[in-house]
Amino acid sequence: MTFITILLLAAITFTTRYLFLEGRLPVRLGPNIKQLLSYSAPAVLSAICLPIIFIHDQQFNWATSNPYLWGGVAATIAAYKTSNVYWTVGFGVCGFVLSGSYF
Fold this sequence. Notes:
The protein is mainly alpha-helical. The protein has helices spanning 2-21, 31-37, 40-54, 67-82, 85-98; strands at 55-56, 59-60. The protein has a two-stranded antiparallel sheet.
């Protein structure tokens, strides 16, 4: 069952990517759909990062001693100020390390 699910997901992913990346096919997205899809990357990133930052030992962790929180704050500020991926990752890692956790 798991193998079939993986194959189906791979087929769906390939088909959707092929339809929109192949230039010879007449499939085009309208401006409303393009605007709607522009929100998908931040939504997916938030869905991945927020549980890592705030959930520890099956409990919500909002403490100031949480190194993931400080790394996330530093990365958010760097992303807002610089709009550069490298600076954002660098400041996020520095915020994590300087908060007292050394992996």
